[in-house]
Specification:
By secondary structure, the chain is an all-beta fold. It contains no helices and 22 strands.
Length: 171
């Protein structure tokens, strides 16, 4: 622990550079700063408030109340975002999630978007979902769009679009 107050670095080779009430509990974990963050084994938190990096080799760069809890998962920023599957990535936004079978899923930004399928991608928008066995499917933007149980499908944008048997919606 270099600076700050109430910080605990208890893992072997763990470190905290500053901030307050941060916990680097796992081996080789690091927290740069912020408040009330927690990093476990081989995890990193850059800063922000109330962030968790609990997956091995996971990272939360900043923001608040973000969680990266699977191996190689990452959240760059925003608020209330979670990457809880292997290799899941959330860039930012609010309340976005990579969950379920969403291995290697990605959400760049937006609000309340979720990827539950392998390799799913949501660029932005509000309340977009990729669910079921919809591997490698994408929603670029829009709101309340759904791709469910169909591989390699694409929604470019728009509102209330739904693909359940394969296809492309351009907006």
């Amino acid at each position: 622990v270099v600076a700050g107050g109430g910080n605990i670095a208890s893992g072997a080779c763990s470190s905290i550079l500053g901030g307050g009430i941060n916990r680097a509990l796992g081996n080789y974990s690091a927290i740069v700063g912020g408040f009330s963050n927690c990093a476990c084994t081989e995890a990193f938190i850059g800063g922000g408030n109330n962030n968790l990096a609990t997956g091995t080799d996971s990272i939360v760069v900043g923001g608040q109340q973000n969680t990266a809890s699977a191996v190689f998962s990452a959240v760059v920023g925003g608020c209330g975002n979670s990457a809880i599957t292997y290799g899941g990535f959330v860039g930012g936004g609010v309340n976005n999630c990579i969950s379920g079978q969403g291995t290697y899923g990605s959400i760049i930004a937006g609000q309340s978007n979720c990827v539950f399928s392998n390799g799913g991608f949501i660029g932005s928008g509000i309340i977009n979902r990729i669910t079921g066995t919809s591997q490698e499917s994408s929603i670029i933007n829009g709101s309340n769009n759904l791709i469910s149980n169909t591989d390699c499908s694409f929604i470019g944008g728009g509102v209330n679009n739904c693909i359940t048997y394969g296809g492309i919606v351009t907006g």
